[in-house]
Amino acid sequence: MKKYKLENSGSLLITKAAIAGTDGIKILNLLVDTGSSFTIIPFEALESCGCSPVESNKHIRIVTGS
């Protein structure tokens, strides 16, 4: 497993993450939120590597504070 370093962007911490699916690997930039319980990945990023959220048999509804 590849390890990615944390990067400062002003007062924010950013890291890279790799998601893998049947069509390959996609590298994303993610905001590090130490108080978060979940990571939300854009639908388009999942589809680009062959992961289909529509075809998944597990869905979780999340309510954000925004």
Give the arrangement of secondary structure elements.
Layout: E1 7-9, E2 12-21, E3 24-31, H1 43-48
Describe this entry's structure for a reader.
The chain is mostly beta strands and 66 residues long. It is 9% helix and 32% strand. It has one domain (1-66). It is built from one helix and three strands; from the N terminus they run E-E-E-H. A three-stranded antiparallel beta sheet has the order 1-2-3. The relative contact order is 0.19.
How much beta, percentage-wise?
A: 25-35%
- Major beta sheet, specifics? 3 strands, antiparallel
Query: What is the total domain count?
Result: 1
Helix content: under 10%
Number of strands: 3
Q: What is the oligomeric state here?
A: single chain
Radius of gyration over all CA atoms, rounded: 14 Å
Unreliable spans:
none
Helical stretch tally: 1
Keywords summarizing the entry:
single chain, 66 residues, mainly beta, three-stranded antiparallel beta sheet, 9% helix, flat
Short overview:
The protein is 9% helix and 32% strand. The chain has 66 residues and is mainly beta. The longest helix is centred in the last third of the chain and has 6 residues, at 43-48.
